[in-house]
UniProtKB/TrEMBL annotation:
Pfam families: Glyco_hydro_17 (PF00332). Signal peptide: none annotated. It comes from the Eukaryota. Its EC number is 3.2.1.39. This is glucan endo-1,3-beta-D-glucosidase. It catalyses: Hydrolysis of (1->3)-beta-D-glucosidic linkages in (1->3)-beta-D-glucans. The chain crosses the membrane at residues 330-348. One of its GO terms (molecular function) is glucan endo-1,3-beta-D-glucosidase activity. Keywords: Glycosidase, Hydrolase, Membrane, Transmembrane, Transmembrane helix.
Length: 349
């Protein structure tokens, strides 16, 4: 049972709570699946090849953990919406209006509008750090960055938010009180009897949707009804250490496959029937340099060579690498010149 609880937590590892400082959030039309593009590895394909892969998968929303210049340039004019990250180490600097404005002018503004940056996440799971200095810097940093966006005229394009682990919930079931059921069918979106919230009488057939509604209930209990919740990371590892019994390709395939079906159906949670669940799957690739247990580096849908880790019914294409030797380049040059002469002869003959 302890291992099942551990894997249940892995299944929905963090939520992205969107705290908008503008009058209304930017509306995203035609929600599809988003993907986390982590890069803690030394064997990943180039960003330009990744752009082809995501296009072949019809994925148009990507979450980065930084503002990687090479990635943002590679996705120029691709119509992919990006969430970019500012790590915890940046929060103190971002409370300074001048530093916040400079960062936006250097790392965000040059990419707009050709690369569609729609959101900036401030910090990552700050409240799991127990660093009270980080806690006190988070909101001022978010406000300062938002004000800088306003000054630069970018606030209609780019929003500001923060990502938090589900650890911020002291209670997550029933959602209206906002203990998990521990059976794996409930976690993996498999057919099950579900469970009924005794306060709202709403029925839940999976843990993830119950957790989302628990967050909404917690927000409402604090007097807020206009904060949007997005799931910035949810996934399942295909491999783990000996004590991570649930980390298997079979479970990962079930979780992500069933999750994608629900996303395609534009499902909503019981408490928010008119709000489709907005999800970013964790993650695109296995990452061979991630610290921690073996599961941490094995959440990917794909190996770095573009081979699927398991079958969930989607096919993508990662272009191969092209190598040219000096002799090949000379041969190509000769062929190009011959073709040019032939074309010129045909035109002027």
């Amino acid at each position: 049972m302890e291992k099942q609880i551990k894997m249940s937590y892995m299944a929905a590892s963090s939520l992205l709570l969107l705290l908008f400082f503008s009058g209304s959030p930017i509306q995203i039309l035609g929600l599809g699946v988003g993907i986390n593009y982590g890069q803690i590895a030394n064997n990943l394909p180039s960003p330009s090849r990744v752009a082809y892969l995501l296009k072949s998968l019809n994925i148009s929303r990507v979450k980065l953990y930084d503002a990687d210049l090479n990635v943002l340039l590679a996705f120029s004019h691709t119509n992919v919406d990006f969430i970019i990250g500012l790590g915890n180490e940046y929060l103190l600097n971002m409370t300074d209006p001048i530093k916040a404005r400079n960062w936006l002018q250097q790392r965000v503004q040059p990419h707009l509008p050709q690369t569609r940056i729609t959101c900036i996440t401030m910090g990552n799971e700050v409240f799991k750090t127990y660093d009270h200095q980080l806690w006190s810097n988070l909101l001022p940093a978010m406000q300062t960055v938002y004000n800088a966006l306003v000054d630069l005229g970018l606030d209609k394009q780019v929003t500001v938010t923060s990502a938090h682990s589900l650890d911020i919930l002291s209670i997550s079931f029933p959602p209206s009180a906002g203990s998990f059921r521990q059976d794996l069918d409930y976690v993996l979106f498999q057919s099950n009897q579900g469970t009924v919230d005794p306060i709202t009488n709403l029925k839940y057939d999976n843990m993830l949707y119950a957790q989302v509604d628990a967050v909404y209930s917690a927000i409402k209990a604090m007097g807020h009804t206009d904060i949007e919740v997005r799931i910035s990371e949810t996934g399942w590892p295909s491999r783990g250490d000996d004590d991570e019994a649930g980390a298997t390709p079979e479970n990962a395939g079930l979780y992500n496959g069933n999750l994608l079906k629900r996303i395609e159906e534009k499902q909503s949670t019981p408490a928010k029937p008119n709000v489709p669940v907005d999800i970013y799957v964790f993650a695109l690739f296995n990452e061979n340099l991630k610290p921690g247990p073996a599961s941490e580096g094995n959440y990917g849908l794909y190996y770095p060579n573009g081979t699927p880790v398991y079958n969930i019914g989607v096919q993508g294409y990662l272009p191969g690498m092209v190598y040219t030797s000096p002799s090949t380049k000379i041969a190509l040059s000769v062929v190009s010149n011959v073709l040019f002469l032939v074309i010129a002869y045909l035109i002027f003959a």
